[in-house]
User: Fold this.
Amino acid sequence: MPIADRHTDAAEALATKLRERGLRVAVDRTRETVPKKVRASQLMKVPYTVVMGDREIESGTVAVRDRQGHEVRDVRFEAFAASAAKEARDRSLEGIDLQGLA
Assistant:
């Protein structure tokens, strides 16, 4: 989920990397505020919402929010991608320990 229009290209690049790992990914390009986008993803029961802005692009990290609303910032993208792919591959119902990725 890009924070602003200028973050959309970076979000698309990360979405492509996640798709290459076999995950279903959608980039929210709507012109809504971030809280509205997050709320919409929670209502749709999206397992993980990844938020990207200037700070995340510069540092190579992302902010990740799970379905229950727990948010962890400064998560290395590669660590999240590997954990999400493993969770999908194993069909795990436990979810990712987001605190362990930060």
User: Anything to note?
Assistant: The CA atoms of residues 6 and 93 lie 35 Å apart. The longest strand covers residues 61-66. Strands lie at 48-51, 61-66, 71-76.
